[in-house]
What does this fold into?
Amino acid sequence: MTELTTTTPDGLHITVRMPDNHAWVRESLEKACAAEARRQLADTPTPDPAYAVPRAADILDLHPETLRDYMRLPDHHPRRLHYMPGESSRGDRILLSQIHDWQRRNRTDATLATAPAARVRGRRPAGQ
It folds into this structure.
């Protein structure tokens, strides 16, 4: 048995029991779950990952020093790549949104960079 429960704005609790093998129940639950997932994803802010210079250079297929040269240009220069300064040059980070903005401003032929998949680091078993 599948139980469908809802509460009306007036505070009335409604519960309906239906057999699990009923196609309408399965379809309704799948549609409701998909609609709720879409709503939650639409309301969730999109992450803007930050990359170190070597990783950003790899994404843009540039040499890291070439990328740093773009970062050193004056603020008003159209080819300047904006970044978040760190405590040292090794700590400088470039947001994915800044990479996209730089690509649009410079009308590069390449497709817009996408966030690479997260790297999975190996873990040691517990107790070692």
About this structure: The chain has two domains: 2-43, 50-105. Strands lie at 2-7, 13-18, 50-52, 93-95.
